Amino acid sequence: MEKEERDKWLLAGKIGKEIRDLGISMCVPGAKILDIAEAIEKKTIEMGAKPSFPPNISINQIAAHYTPKFDDKTELTKGDIVKIDVGASVDGYLSDTAASVAVGEGENKLVNATKEALEAVSKMIKPGMEVHQISEVIDDVISGLGFSPIVNLGGHGVGRYSLHEGEFISNSKNYSGSFLRKEGVVAVEPFATTGGGYVIDSAEVQIYQLASIKNVRSSLGRDILKYISEEYNELPFAKRWIVTKFGRFAEIEIRNLVAAGALNEFNVLKEKDNGLVSQFEHSFLFDGETVTITTL
Ligand code: CO
Fold first, then answer.
1. Distance 282 CA to ligand 1 centre (A)
2. 200: CA distance to ligand 1 center in Å?
3. What Pfam family does this protein match (any one) (predicted)?
4. How far is the C-alpha of 61 from the C-alpha of 81, rounded, in Å?
């Protein structure tokens, strides 16, 4: 790998770690999740990057894909299980990292289960290895601690301007014959729950992604689409960001753009049995025989 490319992956990882830790440090009783998201975004930009995707701040039975609304009033309460899932983009070189915390409490068994699963993976992951070996480690650690791994969420390959590509690294044992890439970045993200271990789409959507540029009739719709393609490329973005830039009418335009096939939606994911959910995630850079956790 060229040094310049490697350095960008590493910087994206370092910024990812900083903003994840900032988010976790702000998870105290009474904190507004909108303030946390905005602090993460501000720090990302101050450090010279852009978000890889909107900060996901998902509480309790919500597993992923929640980012605050532009007027979000949600406050954290003691005992909430909060997942902070964030990433930085340095010229399209991305990081993706997450941590969980039990708000206002110390150690938490559910939180520790995913932390330990990720630590176990960090000790054995190698470029080009069979994907199911990683799934087995995650499943064994989480199940061994009395929780269920979430079977339909998992790790993934990461490319330039491409958050999810190639490998899918399931969190439950399987016999897939696929292999990890030998060079580049993969993200590993164990999820554990007190429920059965399956997430479903809820009706709510706060995060979108450009699908394709379409001809749309409204001039506001055209302006929004142009802005999205220039500002975010094909990386996910928050409805909040568009409403902040274009005003409240943008909400209607976003719906129209989805209907026209210009945007994809990421539904908020919730655990089917309303189980509590925890998550940890790191980005791993493979370069030759070396493995570097960019978000450590
Ligand atoms: Co990820």
1. 8
2. 17
3. Peptidase_M24
4. 8
